[in-house]
Amino acid sequence: MANGDDRAAQRPPGSQAFDRRRFLGFVLAAPTLVTAAELVPAEQARADVPSADITELVDLNDVMTLAALPTSGLITVQVHTDGTVSFALPRAEVGQGITTSTAMLIAEEMDVPLAKVRVTLADARPELVFNQLTGGSNTTIATYTPVRVAAAIARGRLLEAAATAFGAALTEVTIRAGVVIGPAGRTIGIGALAEKAAAVRTQQVAAELKPAEQFTVIGTPQRRIDALDAVTGRKKFAMDLTIPDAFPTMVCRPPTINGKVGSVANVDEVRAMPGVTDVVVIKSGVAVRARTFGQCIDGVRALKVSWVPGSAKGKSDESVLRELKAAEITMGLPPLTPSVEGRFTFHFRSNSALEPNCAIADVRSDRAEIWSSLKAPIVAKEAIAAKLGLPLSAVTVHVTEGGGSFGRKLFFDAALEAVEISERIGKPVKLMWHRADDSRQGRTHPMATSRVRISYVGDTVLSYKQRHTSVATDLSHGFGEIFTALAAKLPVADLGFSETFFQLSQSMPYNFGVNSRLLNETDKSFNTGSMRNVYSPDVTCARELVIDQLAAKMGKDPYRFRRDFLRDHRSLAVLEKVAEAGRWGRPMPEGTAQGIALHSEYHSASAVLVEIDCRPETVNRPIRDGVAGPRVTRIVLAVDAGLTINPRGLEAQMMGCAMDGIALALTSSLHLRDGYFLEASWDNYFYTRQWNTPPELDIIIMPDTTGKPGGAGELGVAATMAAVACAYGRATGTMPTTFPVNHGTLSFEPKPTVPPVPQSPTDGRDHAY
Amino acid sequence: MPKHTFRLNGEQVTVDIADDVRLLWVLRDILGVTGPKYGCGINVCKACTSHLNGRAVNPCAIPVGDLNPTDEVTTIEGLPGTVGADLHPMQQAWLDQDVAQCGYCQPGQIMAAVALVRRAAEEGREITEADLDGIRNICRCGTYLRIREAIKAGARSM
């Protein structure tokens, strides 16, 4: 039959051989068709020759994928009578586009229209153990196969049900655009088959995945499935939900990081303010619940609190830098051969998303329900249950759509706090951190120094040594548990979590002889976390800047030097692509320059060519309540993320990574003084703004040479930051050593710390345009 | 409690709330209109950008007592209604360019874009790169380049 099922027809009759595209899964007992994927076949052992670089043997994503293996079978695809297909993704969507790419996988495998696939976010599911952590750019890598297996089983069941309905052979039916077509052009929609294809008892079945050459959805540019909701204001974030009696709640926070309440002079007075329903002292400050957030702000500002200094008492940028220097381990004796060295400082940076830390909590005596955007919802659920002394089954944690993350939502600070407040006052609360709270008390990318030494003789590089010293990064959100579970399988058994993460996430793409890199951490008094791309932007920036120095010493062009020393074809290909597309080496006016840099991670590779304008008339252009500085005028970014599910989504991620890289290199940092961060809002913290964006941005997606998806949500940050830094160095003739380069100039008037939040202006009508 | 009456997305509304409560909280916490987002509360991030009598304003900086019964507040929810369609051309341009990532800032971005294009039209000119550079709405996902493309496309069809 010409319209017979391609895959069924291809299967050798009676073959018992385990085809590499055949996988086992389940049909679950349910009223309509529900299928589930079982095991993901283990990644093929990597055949690279063992070397000094452990990321060639195993990297962070391998660890996370391995950790996910025993439980991946629990993800289910459901077919409904209205012809839609639904899937509850055990991951957090925070803008990275994974609901869209997951819907694409299902649409592809089932041959149903993308618009008929609904992907929601699963509640916290402790039975998934490690497999509900969104991080490490691992989502697509870990879920690519199991999602398709569940979808393929569903497709197979629908075909069987249709064949029965038509009285036809299985080879005579096929699915096109969500409709099953049988002999003589007979058709039946999958909605009409949803009950017929359902199982009365759970059974194991085999499925064969669609071969890549038959893909019609995967690899095609698709719009986000939530785009319409986003542009109409219908997309619901945690604070947009209507939960009965969950009144707005804010917390009056201390003037120093992690300060504590000593005493409160006027609780009753504030409780009597208009709209205020409750005022209660909690661990992190004084909570105010009111009819509106505006009245919470009024209450927070009216509270008279005496504070006990916090964990960073008296600390400043200068004192932390001294601590870091004291913690630095030796680089060893200077080599006898020629060498180049660099020492770099990376200041604190905020990973605040635009949606601040927030959560809704409804805690009762025997149960609790929480709504929040959480990338580690199982850990959150466990922590909440423990805090309340409730069994895990009495705690429901809903994962809401997130308004950005950048690492922030790996933690659940707001959820824990909302639970504490709701328990104390016995009412549901809708807790939101004020922006000033989010900036001053929220998680940060820790301050760090990085030292690099490269020794060489003639045209040969003998060794590369990097020593990264950082304020401790808090990885307690779940990566830790993964590493604990798998420690025995890793060649890093004696290392701590952070060093393990560091070693697993860093790669050495160059042939630089003996390669050694170490992380050393100090000072746990700050609220830190893994900001997008974690250690890589700083580590890569330091490396690429010293490589430019080495190239200059050897009398080589920065691009040609990198090309000559790169070890793998994927890195080489992205580098050559940006050099060609960006016309590397083209003549440029004085005060402007190009820079080029490379980064590989997440089984992916990226290269970035940047052009920057550092001429005084550009640097000093007037900007109201913001910073100008050098302007990146062009970015060419080439990305090889292996098999790309949605090129349009990948381009979006690379664009965002590029904006982050610009900010990290040029404008965005936190200034620490007297135990607190000076930055309290977006007019102090200078994330990339329209006036900082490159007029030209070209993103080039490389052809896939692997057949497997790599990670990409964070990939482009490191290479962009490094390329901007290299371009800045070449344009100004001085290698930048402190980041961001404008950190030494405070470009705003710090807001007061008492009261901790600024009052909203009243002159909004005067600024209408 | 004082009563405040104004027009919201084409309908007259009345709320009982103190004069100094900012319009953003009246919209979100009292009326349940959640398209305008909170990002700073001090009129710098622009996530709550909406229209007042056709001009872009930030409700986080307007006490509800400043509104008159004839004042017309338009949030992202009411934008399509201003052109009598399911979607405003700017929203369609946003879809065509697939601008949104997390989407949190996008209602404010779209409202700012519409006001910017209207102002340029009133001045009898096209949108310039300088106009686009001057947009103050923050997008922490960094969708800036697609925003610029969408505004140019949206302006052509407005």
Automatic annotation (TrEMBL), chain A:
SUPFAM superfamilies: Molybdenum cofactor-binding domain. Residues 232-311 form the Aldehyde oxidase/xanthine dehydrogenase a/b hammerhead domain. Keywords: Oxidoreductase. InterPro entries: Ald_Oxase/Xan_DH_a/b (IPR000674), AldOxase/xan_DH_MoCoBD1 (IPR008274), AldOxase/xan_DH_MoCoBD2 (IPR046867), AldOxase/xan_DH_Mopterin-bd_sf (IPR037165), N-heterocyclic_Hydroxylase (IPR052516), OxRdtase_Mopterin-bd_su_IorB (IPR012368), TAT_signal (IPR006311). Its EC number is 1.3.99.16. Residues 743-769 are annotated as: Disordered. This is Isoquinoline 1-oxidoreductase beta subunit. It comes from Streptomyces clavifer.
From TrEMBL, chain B:
Residues 7-57 form the 2Fe-2S ferredoxin-type domain. It comes from Streptomyces clavifer. Transmembrane segments: none annotated. The keyword Iron-sulfur applies. Its EC number is 1.3.99.16. InterPro entries: 2Fe-2S-bd, 2Fe-2S-bd_dom_sf, 2Fe-2S_ferredoxin-like_sf, 2Fe-2S_ferredoxin-type, Beta-grasp_dom_sf, Diverse_Oxidoreductases. Residues 75-152 form the [2Fe-2S]-binding domain. Pfam families: Fer2, Fer2_2. Keywords: 2Fe-2S, Iron, Iron-sulfur, Metal-binding, Oxidoreductase. It comes from the Bacteria. GO terms for molecular function: isoquinoline 1-oxidoreductase activity. It is an enzyme of class 1 (oxidoreductase). This is Isoquinoline 1-oxidoreductase alpha subunit.
